[in-house]
Amino acid sequence: MNLNFLKIFFRNLRKHTVISVINAVGLTIGILSSLFIFEYVFFERSFDRYHENGSRLCRLVYDRYQHGKLQWKTANSFFPSGKWLQENYSEVQDWAVITRKYNISVTAENVVGDKVFFNEEKTYNSTGSIFSLFTIPLIRGTKSCLDQPNTVAISERAAQRYFAGDNPLGKILKVNGTENYTVTAVYKNIPANSHLQTDFLFSLETYLASRPGLYANWSFDGFHTYILLAPGVNHEEFCKRALPDMVAQNYLAGLEASQTRDQYFLQPIPDIHLYSNIEYETEQPGNPKIMNILFGFAVFLLVVAWINYINLVTALSLERAREIGIRKINGARKISLVSQFLSEALLFNLACLAITLLLFLLINPFFKSVTNIRDFNLWAEPGFIRTGLLVFAVGIATSGLYPALALSSYKPVAVLKGKFKNTAQGLTFRKGLITVQFIISIALLTGTLVTFRQASFLMKKEMGVDYHSGLVVRAPRTADQEDVRAGKLMLFKNRALELPEVSDFTFSSDIPGQEINNWFSGRRKGYDGTDTKAYFLIAADDRFVDFYNIKLLAGRKFHENEQASRQTILMNKLAMERLGYSKPEDVVNQVVVNGPDREWLVIGVVDDFHYKSVKTEPVPTVISLSDRQKTFITLKPGSMPAGAFASLIPKLRSLYETVYPDQPFEYFSLDDKMRLDLKPDNTFASVFTLFSALAIFIAVIGMIGLILITINQNLKELGIRKALGAEMNQVAGLLSKQLMLQFAVAVVVAVPLSFYGYQHWFLETYIYRIDLHIWFFVLPTLLLSLMIFSVILILARRVFRMNLRDVLQYE
Q1: Cβ count within 10 A of residue 157
Q2: Tell me: the pLDDT tens digits for 518-536?
């Protein structure tokens, strides 16, 4: 762009200040919103792609079928799996295994000798090979740090928490008051975009030392197995050859005897976060369909913004027609004119982009804190740079090329004779672009209603478990003898129940809002081991069923003070059916055999319940009495005035620290825990609403710009109409007439597209979903039409109040 073109560009900006501002605001908001959406989408798609071996690293998972029916799909596997595959197939270069070590208490002495203790929710026992397979940089120590028993590698975060910057190597961590581990390594904090999040990796040798039978055990699947394939190996082809062979060579006979089949898969670790949602995932999985919707949403925002630009620039064509005509008469070639207008489009877009980047840098820290995208650098993503440059280049080319071609094609003779004003050149194209804007706006408004209604539906749906108003305190993990530990727990319970704010109390191994972590295997009495089936297990006390208002279908609940030694259990309907019964009454007082000969009496059947959230189907569950697995203490506040709940916490803390002076006091709301699984859905609904509003705002301000241009170009006509007695509603009708057809076409196109898209691309991702009613489409249509008519009425009022002398003084 030469200096003369630059002067013309800035002169036109000053001449059409309002339209230029509308254009700049629309483009800036569109690009800025799209950047934030792209950042979140690329973060979700970036999981585990930073590992050096990521393309060759896979997790071993399997599905189990019995009598032809799916029993479970799990991320777990058997300990010998990785070793066997490496020894028998050269395609496997290395393997690693981790197993859960959840809900522990960790104690250490810091540099000044003070005792530091915290509850750690999610830690793992691991083989040392984890550092060879995964990219987990070590700050201190070596990759052999977990080769010896009673060793532990900790993250930078944990090192700071327990040792306050002091060198932690060689220091001792005490777990649950009984296990001592020597810190042998410190690793960098695992990035947020990893499916494996933990601050502690304990030596797996410690775990196996007390369980030597697991080295060759093909029945206990409490491990996650990762294998590193050789370069060039296709994991799907390898699955077909090696994994059936692994089953056949090790435990096929046992499967066939019980009419059971295991089907194995290898999951590339970059696919785990978005494309794996099975039992015992290490982290909450994402939703690929939601990411695709958001990506399309970002593109829609850009499209709406660039449509505004095209419409406003071409609508101003009459203002520049004489300029173009004179330049053509003076010998300007079409290529020169096209270059000028493309340069203007590029300069305008780059200016908006510069403003956008400045705003993005200012707002991004807040956005990252809200979305928990810590340590993620969007600009370091090669996929984003390629995609961003491509989208931006296409947008500039498209938004600049059409106006450039349209403006440069004016015939100088017609323009200079003043005949150009009566031509319909470009009107059809502009009307088509306005129709596209209306289609997108209707679809987004419909989506806002659908997403919020679905999120609300999930929050309100009955789960079969009453979790409201529950307050959870994590039970201490101490080195006390079993009877001493039980006595302290009962002391805490009795004293807590004496508080006027506490109305009920229960112990359990698991709480609503998270996956059940324990298993129970059993068969009907009189059947051999081939009939053994697996169930989820909740170990609880006699108050559990009443506390959570779980519906009893047959039999009885646990009696008050019933002894765990009686080995009585409750089953839900799914567990009853898996055991082989069709009616709740039939299974009551039946005996289930666990292990070789341990017998359990089924005393009752409860209704199925959603223990994690309504996004997860109920699972076959057994509830047993237990004096040992009291991991969580849950209490229910009684009726009390607002604000009194907060006053309960200090009392509980004081009571807890009196009974357990060397244990961390940790509590949380059960409502908050349950909502965690639904948080992504509520966040998506909020994000969808926010950016829908921005997209509609862009479309509306673009429409305002178009109407203003129309008014300016037809100002004398409107003035004459007013002088001849036209009313304001007639002026409004004249301005709205050209938009009504586009809006009607947009409704006809947008409604079926929205119905199909939200039904098949969004709602089908949920187990339980709403039905799409007609008002989901009628209401957005009415709202958008109301906005359009409101804008037209406001501008018509402005026209109707104009001074006729100023408009018609030269006629």
Answers
A1: 13
A2: 888 888 988 877 778 889 9
